[in-house]
Amino acid sequence: MNENQFISSDHDTLIEIRTLVAELKHDINQLREGTHAQLIEHDKRIRALEDQTTRIQPDEKIKKYDKIAEEWTDFKTRLKVYIAFVTIFGGIVGAIITQIIREYIVRTL
Fold first, then answer.
1. Which of 5, 24, 94, 101 could form a disulfide with 1 if both were Cys (CB 3.0 to 4.6 A apart)?
2. Is the pTM of this model over 0.70?
3. CA–CA dist 76, 70 (Å, integer)
4. What does each C-alpha distance from 51 to 14, 33, 37, 45, 57 come to in angstroms?
């Protein structure tokens, strides 16, 4: 090969390298812009979640829920006691009424 062929080959190689570097710069800029856009979106979502957490105050909600759950358990316990009391009272009253009816029937016969 002569000197002109080397220069031409070197020139072509430099053009290819310059084109590849330009493409790489373009790709890097696109990645940077995409990453920046994603970070902005993540920041928006995080701020919205933080705002909701501040407004909702989950710690207080959990305490209220626990209190309501405890009251519900107490209510169910009281209800069972009341049902047992009414059942026993109803049985006693029923037995008394039955006894009165039996005595009435025995006296009238």
1. 5
2. no
3. 10
4. 55, 27, 21, 10, 10
